[in-house]
Amino acid sequence: MNISFENTKIAFSDKSKKELIKAFWLFKTVESPLVVRIGEKLLKFALFVKFPVKWIIKPTIFSHFCGGETMEECKQTITRLSKSNIKTILDYSAEGIKNESSFDNVKRQIIEIIELAKNEINIPFAVFKVTGIARFDLLEKVSNKSKLNTSEFEEFERVKNRIDEICAKGFENDIPILIDAEESWIQDAIDEIVDEMMIKYNRNKAIVYNTIQLYRTDRLDFLTKKIEFARKNNFYLGFKLVRGAYMEKERERALKYNYVSPIHVDKKATDEAFNKALILCIDNIDVVSICNGSHNEYSNLLMVKLINERKLEPGDKRLFFAQLLGMSDHISYNLANAGYNVAKYVPFGPVKTVIPYLIRRAKENTSIAGQSGRELLLIKKELKMRK
């Protein structure tokens, strides 16, 4: 089936004219790097002095990019998306927490999502960041192969137990778990834990998914070796493929500590790596399940082409496309309309704790070449048609 991402009637089928106008002005605002920088500073200052910001954030940028403050509030979004054949990946996005009780709370939230998903056909995955349930500095120390003292060793055991509890719950309820990738200097610790979970829970199908950031120069080789290892040891692999989320931080740290940056020199090289990874995964579909987490039109069309060429079913549960709520609806809605498995990441959590996520989304729309411009062009096209 031919798919056109230009079909705005399908892309914005569940948006009212009022919602489209609101989205237009939101993307118009984040199109300016200066406005985003000033807004970030003002927001951080407001939070520091405990100035109330919820009244302005919740009805604007929060309502566009998030499903609500609680799982209950997200149910309306889940229902709305399902009417367009789009699934929901609930993402508890509270950030900046560093104590054990908060880590345990995040673990409970993820387990609650799995409990909800087992009876909700429109929630195909659960997802979490390891830094939501573990201290960043501890993960860095483990990644560096530094010796842990007794309390750190016990702390890391608690981290692994939290992850195992989440993955066991996913296995028990047949809900795959997406584990997000993070900064390169803590990723080794994450990869090692995910490998253990895959070997333990992916014996019959992919339940545990690792996330591969293809802006890293070593990830294609990493992917190839993981596939070889899984074949030799008779278990399945799940991968979410993304381009990468920490480019500026990675380059700055490499410069600061005088080592070669782990990421590709330009977008072209990253795009090539991403598309090669897609082909590699599809070529090994007998052992690999894929979640294509891309907002790039070509990469999504490439996966459609590969599915058709390999004569795979569009609804094959090993093949998923995923985009963020509030972004790239022209991709998500047109793919879903054509019968492919599509899910939207729907972040939720208290407004104050989700603000770091919202700042990243604003900066992403500013920094990715043409992202806001593309959104604006499509919204304008649809508004003009509706006149």
Question: What would you note in describing this structure?
Answer:
- The protein is α/β, with parallel strands linked by helices and 387 residues long.
- The chain has two domains: 1-66 and 353-387, no CATH class; 68-348, Alpha-Beta Barrel (TIM Barrel), CATH 3.20.20.
- Helix content is 58%, strand content 11%.
- The chain contains 16 helices and eight strands.
- It has helices at residues 8-11, 17-30, 33-48, 54-65, 71-82, 100-117, 136-143, 150-173, 184-201, 219-233, 247-256, 267-283, 297-309, 329-337, 351-367, 371-386, and strands at 87-92, 126-128, 177-179, 208-213, 237-242, 288-292, 319-324, 342-348.
- It has an eight-stranded parallel β-sheet.
- Helix 2 packs antiparallel against helix 16.
- It is globular and about 65 Å long.
Q: Which characteristics define this entry?
A:
387 residues; alpha/beta; TIM Barrel; globular
